[in-house]
Amino acid sequence: MGQGAFLLIHEISAQMGGKIGDIDDTSIFLKKLQTRMVDIYMERVQGKISRASFIHGCKRKDWWLSAEECLKLGFIDEVW
Asked: What pTM does this model have?
């Protein structure tokens, strides 16, 4: 990752419309996507950040991380 770059992590986002049943179904699917996204990041960082800390970092807001923060937390392998 370039030294001046930033990584943005945030919750899964979507726009929904339709009948309430459709919205409920879409919400369930989005929650599955969110769980999978967190799983992927957790596999990558290999314990350098807890699942709870990761979820807190991106819950309901944008989480901007510098290259150095990404390296420290295990999101990247090197800063160049």
From this structure: 0.85
pLDDT single digits (tens) 40-60: 999 999 999 999 999 999 998
Half-sphere CA count of 71, side-chain side, radius 13 A? 12
Rg from Cα positions in the chain: 15
Give the separation between CA 23 and CA 52, rounded to whole angstroms.
Answer: 27
From the centroid of its chain, how far is CA 29? Answer: 16
Tokens of 18: 């339709």
d(CA 16, CA 71) in angstroms, rounded, equals 36
Phi, psi of 65 (to 5 degrees): -120, 130
